[in-house]
Amino acid sequence: MPLTFFTPGPAQLYPTFEKHLQTFVAGQLGSISHRSQQYRDLHRFTVEQLRLLLNVPDTHAILFLGSASEAWERILFSCVELESFHLVNGSFSKKFYDYSNALNKYAHKYEKPMGQGFSAAEIVVPEYAELMCVTHNETSSGVQMPVAEIHKLKTKYPDKFIAVDMVSSAPYPELDYSLIDNAFFSVQKAFGLPAGLGVWIVSEKCLEKARLIKEQYSIGAHNDLLTLWKNAKNNETPATPNVMGIYLLGKIAEDFNSLGVSNIRKDTERKAQLLYQFIQSHDAYSAFVNIKEYQSQTVVVANTTLPSADVIKGAKAKGLVVGSGYGEHKATQIRIANFPATSLEQTEELIKVLGDL
Amino acid sequence: MPLTFFTPGPAQLYPTFEKHLQTFVAGQLGSISHRSQQYRDLHRFTVEQLRLLLNVPDTHAILFLGSASEAWERILFSCVELESFHLVNGSFSKKFYDYSNALNKYAHKYEKPMGQGFSAAEIVVPEYAELMCVTHNETSSGVQMPVAEIHKLKTKYPDKFIAVDMVSSAPYPELDYSLIDNAFFSVQKAFGLPAGLGVWIVSEKCLEKARLIKEQYSIGAHNDLLTLWKNAKNNETPATPNVMGIYLLGKIAEDFNSLGVSNIRKDTERKAQLLYQFIQSHDAYSAFVNIKEYQSQTVVVANTTLPSADVIKGAKAKGLVVGSGYGEHKATQIRIANFPATSLEQTEELIKVLGDL
Question: How far is A72 from chain B (nearest CA, A)?
Answer without folding.
Answer: 8
